[in-house]
Structures are given as C-alpha cells and as structure tokens.
Amino acid sequence: MSQALTDAVQLNVLAERPPIVPEHFRDSEFVFLANTHPSLQIQLLDQLKGPKFVAADTMNCWIENQAEDLKKLMGRIDALILNDGEAKMLTKIDHLAPAAQELQKMGPKIIIIKKGSHGVISLDKNGNFFSLPAYPTTNVKDPTGAGDAFAGALMGYLASAGKPDTGYLRTAIAYGTVTASLVIEGFSLSAVASVSRSAIDARLDQLRKMMEF
Amino acid sequence: MSQALTDAVQLNVLAERPPIVPEHFRDSEFVFLANTHPSLQIQLLDQLKGPKFVAADTMNCWIENQAEDLKKLMGRIDALILNDGEAKMLTKIDHLAPAAQELQKMGPKIIIIKKGSHGVISLDKNGNFFSLPAYPTTNVKDPTGAGDAFAGALMGYLASAGKPDTGYLRTAIAYGTVTASLVIEGFSLSAVASVSRSAIDARLDQLRKMMEF
Questions:
Q1: In total, how many domains does chain A have?
Q2: Of B128, B133, B140, the CB nearest to A95
Q3: What is the secondary structure of B48-91 as a DSSP string?
C-alpha cells in the first residue's frame, strides 16, 4: 500500500526536446531535479551555472531500464531522494541502513530514503544516520504528492537557510516530513493550497515532542 | 521480510494444564504475559496478587482463531504489545495511528505497535502518540528474539522505575528499541548473553542523537 510502482511512462514532448531552463533561473543555487528520465535530469543540470546543492528523485522504471544514465546522474548530484523500495531495487540490499551506505558509494554524498508511513532515514556526508518516524496523522485522505511535498519543503527550507550543512539538512528533512503529513490529509492539491507556514511549524513542534524521551 | 507469520502452534503440556506461578512470584508488580494462548495468559494473570502493570503480547493465530479469549484478555491488561501486521489484522484498519486508537477501545489503555526495522509507534492513556525509528544497525544477523528483547527491556526498565507513568514508559520503549537492535546483531542467544548495560545505554544516547534536529 505504501509503495508506488510505475508500469509505464509516456514522456511525450519531453522525449523530443529537453526542457529549456529560462535564463533567470539558471543561477539557482538550490536545485531539485524531480523524477523524470535521468538523461533529461542531466540535460537540465547542464543548463545551470554552478548550483550550490543539487538533489534528485528517481523511480523504479529508470532503475530497471536506464541504469547507465542514472549512474551518470548519481555522479553529479549532492543528494539522492528516493523511497525504500527504490533503494532496495537499486542496491539489491534488503536493509535500508547498509543500502544507504551502498548508494553513497554510487556518488551522492547525501542519501535520503523515504519510507511512507514509516518516516525517513538519511545518511549524511560524514556517514552519520538521521532518522525520523512519520507524523502519525489519523486523517489520511490521499497519499498522492506526499513525496513531492516532502522534497519541496526540504528544498525550500535549505534554500532559505542558504547552506546545505548537516544541521540545516536535518531540519529540512523534518520540515519535509511534517509537510507531507499535512498534504496527505486532503485530496489532490487542496491540502497543499490551504496549508499555512504556522500549521507546518506547529506540526514540526509536535513531531519533536512526539519523539521525546 | 519483517513479518513473522505463525502457521501452527503445538501447546503440548501447556494445553493439558496451565503453568503454575510459584508462590514467591505471585506478588510481582510488573508482569509481561508473553505470547501464548490468550486463555493461558488469563489463567496466569488469575494467579497474581494485584500487579501494578500488566502487558501482553499476542500473534496472528490467536487473533484469527481465539478472538473471544483475546477480547477477554484485552479487558484485563494495561498494555498491549504487538506488531504492525497484528494490529492491522485485529482492527482491520490499514493505518497504524487509527488502528492504535481502535485497539485502545478494546481495553488496554496503552498500545505499543512494533514495526520491525521501522521502529515503534505507541499510544498512551491520554491519547498521545509516541514514535521512534529503529536504531539503524548495519549488522543484522538474526532477527529472532527481537520482539521479546524489546518487551523484556521495556518491562525491566519500567520495573526498575517502579511506576508505569507516561514519561517512564517512553524511556522504556526507547530501551526496548535499542536492546532489540543489539540482539539482532548476533545469532540466537549469543548477542543477548553478551550485551552489557553500558552498551545499551550508549546506544540509547546514539538513538537520541540520531533524531535530533
């Protein structure tokens, strides 16, 4: 239930010509390459002028069918954000802690593995793990977009902090966690559209209290 | 992989006569009814003189085949400790947070759901959730006994604290979490036999640091 599986993708116009990054976005410092064909992710990256921090998402069908391009991409990004099934598929390792270490050897210094209702585990550039449970919402309506909400909040916080240091990255992952928990409480875009920064901050505080011992 | 499923149980002599609790154990204050037939758990409980805190474990085959006895047991215990698959099976609810709330309605004021490599989520008598990720060991050798190590460390800490208050319960769950993580790093009883209190305390500290943001 918590696993997304993609059977087929139609890239359509994207397969004919990669997207052009508008000139005024080319100096973006914090860049998230959302999930698409890894060669498109590379072509997007090629258009940027020395970003400070690049993260990328991927999925099962690129892991299975575009391994070479994905390997090239992994050599060029700072962080890989993927889910637990994808981490196991990419490394052929069933436990996430050693799988994260194996993924790190493939290039990205930072590995962030999303586990749906089980939270997140990440590995930083110093080899230290950081892990959070999910916020236990009792009001799940639609998990669509949870992963993108997670990545969006994470990147937004990092960009606002201005530095991708480990301390900021941990807080960014926590923001991703609670933002995703709010997004799944509404259908489609409605929860994203209505959620406020104060609701996100309140839930961040609740998450911290929920783990205190 | 993280789910234990029991196809059959042979109670053997236990089916003929329930175990007799020795006289000098009957005034035990903190009692854990390990996983066995729920009517045996009740008969063990009947022999005790007003314990302060009673927790019980159960499993899929009692949920499926001994629902009535299990229901009676649940009305007599303070805490139910079970795994995620069992919580879903018992409540027919797929999300663990609302499943925990439903389990609470069946009797036990405290619900503790073990999630194997994903950690633990619990619900206290005030309706507040507490959740921890698992300690990310990279050295898993044998998960056998992880659940009993979890429950044993939890009960041991509570008994040493002398009170089953929410604050102590949270620390007890954290002790259960890290003790289980040490036990799965060795085969059979070898890890339990060799683990020291200082190793457990050190890992408790690491767990806390691993979640800091």
A1: 1
A2: B140
A3: SS--SEEEEE--HHHHHH-HHHHHHHHTT-SEEEEEHHHHHHHH
Please report, for the domain that includes residue B147, its CATH number: 3.40.1190.20
Judge whether A149 and A179 are in contact, CB under 8 Å: yes
In b/e form, how buried is each residue of B10-32, taking b as 16+ CB within 10 angstroms? eeeeeeeebeebeeeeeebbbbb
Q: Domain for residue B150, yes or no?
A: yes
- pTM attached to this predicted model: 0.93
**Domain limits for position B106:** 13-210
Residue A3 lies in a domain: no
Per-residue model confidence (pLDDT) at position A83:
95
pLDDT of B1: 43
Flag whether A2 is in a domain.
no
CA distances in angstroms from B99 to A57, A61, B113, listed in the order given? 31, 33, 10
B132 touches chain A (CB under 8 A): yes
Whether residue B96 lies inside any domain: the answer is yes
| Distance in angstroms (rounded) separating the CA atoms of residues A41 and A39 | 5
- For residue range B23-41, list pLDDT tens digits in order: 999 999 999 999 999 999 9
- Which residue of B101, B131, B210 is in closest CB contact with A210? B131
Structure letter (DSSP) for residue A118: G
Q: Looking at the complex, does the CB of residue A2 fall below 8 Å from at least one CB of chain B? A: no
Q: Are A30 and A7 in contact (CB under 8 A)?
A: no
pLDDT in tens, B97-129: 999 999 999 999 999 999 999 999 999 999 999
State pLDDT tens for residues A133-160: 999 999 999 998 899 999 999 999 999 9
- Cα(B62)–Cα(B71) distance, rounded to whole angstroms? 10
Q: Is B32 helix (H, G, I), strand (E, B) or coil?
A: strand
Query: What type of residue sits at position A182?
Result: L
Over residues A110-131, the mean pLDDT reads 97
Within 8 A of B153 by CB-CB distance, chain A residues are none
And the tokens for A115?
Answer: 């586990």
The interface predicted TM-score of the complex, written ipTM, equals: 0.90
